[in-house]
Amino acid sequence: MGFKQVTLQDVIPLRHVVLRPGKDVETCYFEGDEVPTTRHFAWVEGDRVLSVATVMLSPKQIEGVKIPLQLRGMATDPHVSGQGIGSRFLQALHDELRSSWWCNAREVAVRFYERNGLTRIGEPFDIPGIGPHYVMVYKKTAGSE
Hints:
This protein is 21% helix and 43% strand.
């Protein structure tokens, strides 16, 4: 099946397992999740959701350029980690969005994002209860289609 747009409820279980283990499931719902312009995506094989992410309008000035979209809650099932599913999912997301976007990447995910075309911006910062993060950006260019 591969890449597809899904509902908020489809992304919550993987967000919970990967991004908020041991925390209440309510912590997996983000501000902006239910705004009509927000879109949720998944990589699905058979009936299994293997990777998820949410994209929302949240403009941010980065190096003098207004980046319109924020990626939030990207998570890949740990049972398929290292098999390239997260990278295939992210490439499909680039193709779908056809726009620049930014995210707050966990320190442990920075190399994954760099391998997939994102650039780290600035110094690390802490999200209380979650840990160190970096702002990262994917800049859509004429040659990146």
